[in-house]
Design goal:
Elements (H helix, E strand, L loop, with lengths): L1 H14 L6 H14 L4 H13 L3 H14 L4 H13 L3 H13 L6 H14 L3 H12 L10 H12 L10
Helix pairs in contact: 1-2, 1-3, 2-3, 3-4, 3-5, 4-5, 5-6, 5-7, 6-7, 7-8, 8-9
């Protein structure tokens, strides 16, 4: 496992670097998987590296493996939802994102809800998107995006001619 951790750490240095190198990160994450094929963390990061290289089909495959290997962890479900959203599979993205949000992510909840609202919007379900945008607009600013999701939600509501408050009777 020590070798897998060192490969993961090296991959994360490429992944999170000032000038990210997702190809090198992918290679490191694949090495970690070769050493520890049942360790979900490597699959989670490999899925992210593949997504950032626009290898969306492969990213979904690795994301599904991460979901299976990391039960109870919202990160792989939310990341898979984002990849499905980018792949144009909006209904599947909704399911994955909702499942991830049910697990109460420690951080990035507002970002995940933005992805969910976008999936609803792309499906033409503005009513559910609006409910989600209103939730986001009323959230506290947190890491990693601080108040960006809240501002984006308010812009989306305005774009669709909707108020911050739900005025249904």
């Amino acid at each position: 496992m020590k070798d897998a951790r060192s490969h993961l750490k090296e991959g994360q240095e490429y992944y999170f670097g000032d000038l990210p190198d997702y190809v090198s990160a992918e290679q490191c994450f694949r090495k970690a998987i070769a050493v520890a094929p049942d360790w979900g963390e490597s699959f989670l990061f490999l899925a992210g590296a593949l997504q950032r290289q626009n290898k969306l089909k492969q990213a979904c495959e690795m994301g599904r493996t991460a979901v299976r290997l990391l039960p109870g962890d919202p990160r792989p479900l939310i990341d898979l939802g984002n990849t499905l959203l980018l792949s144009g599979r909006h209904a599947a993205a909704v399911h994955s994102l909702e499942d991830g949000l049910k697990l109460k992510p420690h951080y990035g909840e507002a970002d995940a809800r933005c992805m969910l609202a976008e999936a609803f919007e792309r499906l033409g379900n503005i009513k559910r998107a609006a409910v989600t945008w209103r939730q986001i607009a009323n959230m506290e600013s947190t890491y990693p995006s601080h108040d960006r999701p809240m501002e984006e939600a308010k812009k989306k509501l305005a774009k669709h001619g909707l108020s911050l408050e739900d005025h249904r009777a």
